[in-house]
User: Fold these one by one.
Assistant:
Number 1:
Amino acid sequence: MDIINNIKITTQNDKKLLEALDALPANYWDFKADDVREYTHGIHNYPAMMVCPISRNILRIVQEIRPVNTLLDPFMGSGTVVVEGMLANIPQVYGTDINPLALFLSKVKTTRLASANLQSESQRLLERIYQSCEKNRTQINGVDNILHDRYELDLTAKKGWGENAPVYLKKYQEQNNMEIEIPNFKNLGYWFKPRVILLLSLIKSQIQKTEDKDIRDFFFIAFSETIRFVSNRRNGEFKMFRMPAVKVKTFEPDVIREFISILNRNIEKMNAFTERCCQIDCTTKVSIFRNNATILKDIPDGCVDLVITSPPYGDSRTTVAYGEYSRLSLQWLDLDLSEKEIMGIDKSLMGGNKFKNGFKMTIPSRTLQQSLQRLQSVDLERAGDVYSFYLDLEKAISTISRKTRIDGYHFWVVGNRTVKGETLLTDRVIAEVGQRYGMDYLSTIDRNIVNKVMPMQNSPTNQSGKKSATMTNEHIVVLKKRKC
Ligand SMILES: C[S@@+](CC[C@H](N)C(=O)[O-])C[C@H]1O[C@@H](n2cnc3c(N)ncnc32)[C@H](O)[C@@H]1O
């Protein structure tokens, strides 16, 4: 039986929900003209962010039909759904992810800060930064030329400067009577020029002096966003590709100005968020956990009324590399992570296991089975990657269903990507797998991607320059937890 054509409307609420969705005009879900960066949504970029009006409207529609006491986003990413849960004043909001940058960002985005404190602390921070810049001005401004001329270092090369930046900078500081703590991670010099490293280190050391932890974390998010713009990384891509050497040579970002402008923007957004939460008398309890969505060990069973989530489109290697995107930030921020942990993030995400030599199809989805059969005949290894991703997705669906209360709703926002010419119908797969794990299929809403923060091209081979088009539309799959 085709699940999509066999919708099970069992309660009055299901009927009301479907009527409400059906009554919306075409293109309602595109949100072409909406400000998707308002409040704290806009304080830091993150790959494949969900545009906030999606969750805002789902929450509004569902709340008009039934109370929502507990909301969960098991693939929280930058925390869009969690922020919207607060703006909808949901009593309990859970957000989980594996990527430590996602957790840190979501924590900052959902922690309200009193405007007056934020203003005075940021004023103090900027004064400290200016003073330290003034004190070290000559040494900082001269470092690129001196390292290049005196030590004959090629500042664009991986060997020499690229690999040993901390050693050279330490020597430089000793000779020039400077004392700024420099981070020590692999290929620091490959990704940053000497002046940029000194300035970032200076900002970091001044942020560390902020006593209030929540304000300090907020400053670190502005710092993290600055890192991306002043690194030698090619902007506009989520994978770690560096600018060509000729560009690195002449790249001289204004680190301090970049940081201040991001900080000021973020302060405005935080003030607007805090004010809005005050207006609505927000009493939401936000609980953020570093949990694998296939396990969700910290979320109680049977407690969730509503799930709104956008899982990854596929494995990190061939779709969006969340770990790679976050790497430089995590290497600079002191989040108590080893280099091994940081480098291993992408492998720990959905589809990280390899099935190089084939697999036995066990996932309860006829649609996926047909796609995998076709894919296997073209490329066994790629078929294995796809299988690995959907195997994790199956585990996640089963776990999330277990966390959901009877009659609770799920809204899965997904894109159907194409691998080796085979379009993988993730929306159907979710409906079919959900059916096996106690979730009835209710509807699929289609939307055009007009303002989502994601590349319209990806790099399926993981090689710089080789790209193919990614999807330009998404589907929101609506499921309902049935009575056992
Ligand atoms: C499409 S993004 C979510 C974006 C999010 N809706 C937002 O607005 O920022 C998918 C997220 O799933 C996370 N992820 C991947 N595999 C995971 C797993 N097994 N458990 C939990 N989170 C996972 C990634 O780290 C990433 O943050």
Note: The longest strand covers residues 404-414.
Number 2:
Amino acid sequence: MKLIGISGSLGKYSKTGIAVKTALEFATASFPGAETNLLPLSEFDLDFCDGRNPDTYEGDTRTVIDIITAGDAFIIGSPIYRGTYSGAFKNLFDLIPNDALKGKAVGLLATGGSDHHYLAIEHQFKPLFGYFNAYVVPGGVYANNTHFSDGKLADENILRRLEKLAHETVRLSGLLGQVYKGPAPPVIKRESLKAS
Ligand SMILES: Cc1cc2nc3c(=O)[nH]c(=O)nc-3n(C[C@H](O)[C@H](O)[C@H](O)COP(=O)(O)O)c2cc1C
């Protein structure tokens, strides 16, 4: 199982990157079979989406699109900018193909300067992944600046919640794998409601 971590911060010392990395570590500690790959957007030189066919991008943009498309499950985080995800984060999800996340498990997290925008995960992030027909783990983890210390996530409560998010994302991915490996559901022909 390929578990991909995505951080939507372009900051060099990113709290979002730390939180996503920590969640991936929780996943591999409990599920050693999980192959993880962390994609901090700060390390890739992504094109701006200009509406062309995603197949035609090259370089870092091609690399990132291919890694995400091949992923089975995702831990995805962004810093909160102006009450929602960062512009870099949105650009990434404008670049990837419509079906890249379809039927796949996604665990969401956000970091903010304060707790003012913790509901952004529900009201801003989740609709984006609804667009992609992904299965989002209920809840999500929101960490503020005070939860970090010495370049680490230091808050025990947030750490436990991140661990739970990582575990639930991997478990949901396993369950979805079983669902999607099964036979195709029967096609039910609907009768026309129009009077003949
Ligand atoms: C342009 C900008 C806008 C921000 N807007 C918000 C905001 O609306 N709400 C909030 O809680 N924090 C806001 N912040 C603070 C960041 O969300 C916070 O510091 C975050 O943890 C940074 O993540 P990073 O270290 O991964 O880059 C903003 C920061 C910047 C630079």
Note: Helices lie at 15-30, 59-70, 87-95, 120-131, 156-181.
